[in-house]
Design goal:
The protein is α+β, with helices and mostly antiparallel strands and 357 residues long. The chain has two domains: 222 residues, 3-Layer(aba) Sandwich (Rossmann fold), CATH 3.40.50.300; 115 residues, Beta Barrel (OB fold (Dihydrolipoamide Acetyltransferase, E2P)). The protein is 25% helix and 36% strand. The protein contains nine helices and 20 strands. The strands form four sheets. Strands 6-7-8-3-9-10 form a six-stranded mixed sheet, sandwiched between helices. A hairpin with a 2-residue loop joins strand 1 and strand 2. It is elongated, with a radius of gyration of 24 Å. 36% of the residues are buried.
Length: 357
C-alpha cells in the first residue's frame, strides 16, 4: 500500500460564526484518486482550499510528506489547483497559458518549450499551442487548465468540481481522460464533486461529507454496498431505508416480518435502520415472497424498469429487468446478504456527525 502523503489533523474552520469543518481528520495516500463528495455546504471545497493554501484553518494542521505546511502560501506548496471556471488568461495563447507558472519559476526557454509540447500531447490537444482560449470548447479549455497544472510537476493535483460546467457526454469523456492522466502521471488526485456517479466512476477512495463532518471513507464498492449510516445510503444512489428491529444476530424484523440477514453484534430487540438497494429487491408472484404488495408506479429506464411497490405499509423502490404492470399483486423478498443493518442515531447532532455507535 502506498505511503501517506497528506495528513489533515483536527481541522476546524468557521466563517462568520458558522462552523464549516469540525475537527476533521483525513489521511491521503500517494498516487491515490481521492474524492470529497457531499451536498453544497458540506465543507468539501473548504477542505480543498485549506489543502491548497487558499484558506487557513482556525485549528489543526496540514502535514505534507512529513512537513507542516499549514501556514505555507499556495505558491510554495507542491500542489496545483484546477478550478471549475478554468481561469485561463484570455489575452494569452494556449502555449503562453501553459507556460505561465514555468516562466515565474524562471525555467529555460527550451525546458518550457518541451513541457508545453509534452502537456499538450498528454491532454490530446497536440498542435493547439498558438490558439486563443476563446476558440476552444469548454472541454478543451478544461484540458488546457489541467495541462497548465501538470507542467509544474505537482505531487498533488487538486480539482474543484472541474467538470461541473460541461454537458453530460463531455463530462463522461473527461472522467475517463482524468483516470488515464492519473495513471500515466503517477500523482495524487484530490477531487471535489457533489455528483455521486462521478465519484463512483473515478475514485480509488471516496470521502462522503455532510455538515462539516466525514460520514464515511472507503472504496466506491464499500461506500455503495455497505453504507455506514442513512445519510450515506441516501446520498449514494437510491435506497429503501426502513426503521426496523434487530431481533438477534442474523435476524431482523422489517415491517413486522422476520428476515434472515448476515449482520451480527447489534444486540437483541434493538431499533436499527435497514438499507436495501432497489436492484436487490426480489419481486415474484403474489404469495411467494415474505411480504405481499402491489405495484403502484412504473417507469422504463432503458436498462431496467423502476417500480414503486406498496408492501407492508412501505413504498418500496424496485429496479428490475422484469416488468410488472401497475396493479399487479407481487411478493417482495430480499436475500440475507443484501440487507444492510445500521445503528439508528439517537439525535440530529449525532446524525450530522455520522455517529452510529
Amino acid at each position: 500500500m502506498n505511503k501517506i502523503l497528506i495528513d489533515l489533523k483536527n481541522i476546524s474552520k468557521s466563517f462568520d460564526g458558522q462552523m464549516v469543518l469540525d475537527d476533521l481528520n483525513l489521511s491521503i495516500r500517494e498516487n491515490e484518486f481521492l474524492t470529497l463528495l457531499g451536498p453544497s455546504g458540506c465543507g468539501k471545497t473548504t477542505t480543498l482550499r485549506i489543502l491548497g493554501g487558499f484558506e487557513t484553518p482556525d485549528k489543526g494542521s496540514v502535514i505534507f510528506d512529513g512537513a507542516d505546511i499549514t501556514s505555507l502560501p499556495p505558491n510554495k506548496r507542491q500542489l496545483n489547483t484546477v478550478f471549475q471556471k478554468y481561469a485561463l488568461f484570455p489575452h494569452m495563447t494556449i502555449a503562453e497559458n501553459i507556460a505561465f507558472g514555468l516562466k515565474i519559476k524562471k525555467k529555460s526557454k527550451s525546458y518550457i518549450e518541451d513541457k508545453i509540447q509534452y502537456a499538450l500531447k498528454l491532454v490530446n490537444l497536440d498542435g493547439y499551442g498558438k490558439r486563443m482560449p476563446d476558440s476552444l470548447s469548454g472541454g478543451q479549455q478544461q484540458r488546457i487548465a489541467i495541462a497548465r497544472a501538470i507542467v509544474n510537476e505537482p505531487k498533488v493535483l487538486l480539482l474543484d468540481e472541474p467538470l461541473g460546467a460541461l454537458d453530460l457526454k463531455l463530462r463522461q469523456d473527461m472522467q475517463y481522460e482524468l483516470i488515464r492522466l492519473k495513471n500515466e502521471l503517477g500523482i495524487t488526485f484530490i477531487y471535489v464533486t457533489h455528483d455521486q456517479e462521478e465519484a463512483l466512476t473515478m475514485s480509488d477512495t471516496i470521502v462522503v461529507m455532510n455538515q462539516g463532518y466525514i460520514q464515511q471513507t472507503g472504496s466506491p464498492e464499500k461506500i455503495y454496498n455497505e453504507p455506514e449510516n442513512a445519510f450515506v445510503a441516501d446520498f449514494i444512489g437510491d435506497s429503501n431505508i426502513i426503521s426496523s428491529i434487530m431481533l438477534e444476530d442474523k435476524l431482523v424484523e422489517i415491517l413486522g416480518i422476520p428476515f434472515p440477514c448476515v449482520d451480527t453484534g447489534f444486540g437483541c430487540n434493538k431499533p436499527v435502520d435497514v438499507v436495501i438497494r432497489p436492484e436487490d429487491v426480489i419481486l415474484s408472484a403474489s404469495g411467494s415472497g415474505r411480504i405481499n404488495g402491489v405495484v403502484t408506479h412504473i417507469i422504463f429506464k432503458g436498462v431496467h424498469y423502476e417500480m414503486e411497490v406498496m408492501a407492508g405499509g412501505f413504498e418500496w423502490l424496485v429496479h428490475s429487468t422484469s416488468m410488472f404492470p401497475v396493479g399487479t399483486k407481487v411478493g417482495v423478498d430480499v436475500a440475507p446478504f443484501n440487507i444492510q443493518i445500521m445503528n439508528r442515531p439517537a439525535s440530529e447532532d449525532e446524525e450530522a456527525a455520522g455517529i452510529n455507535e
